[in-house]
Amino acid sequence: MTKTTMVNTHGGDIPRQNPCAQCGAPIAQPDWIEPGEGRVSYLWTCHACNYRFEAIAIFDEPAVVYPPLAA
Asked: Alpha-carbon distance 49 to 53, whole Å?
């Protein structure tokens, strides 16, 4: 999945300036976005301390609607 695909799949609503979970420095944007059923996962890398972490947003409704599988 390319960054363009990730943005289009996620609807363009990318979180910005998330604080690093280790040192608190702001991170401009996530390195990776992976939408799924009822959730969106974000991979963050802090350039100040090189800490990497994942954050998951969970929704009441699916973030992505998948077409039904063929029978």
From this structure: 12
Written as six digits, the tokens of 6 are 């990730």
Of 57, 28, 24, the residue nearest 42 (C-alpha): 57
Q: Which of 69, 65, 71, 30 is nearest to 47 (CA)?
A: 30
- Segment 33-63, tens digit of pLDDT: 998 888 889 999 999 999 999 999 888 876 5
The SS3 assignment for 20 reads coil
Is this model's pTM higher than 0.90 or not? no
The answer to whether the CB of 41 falls within 8 A of the CB of 33 is: yes
Among residues 24, 21, 6, 17, the alpha carbon closest in space to that of 63 is found at 6
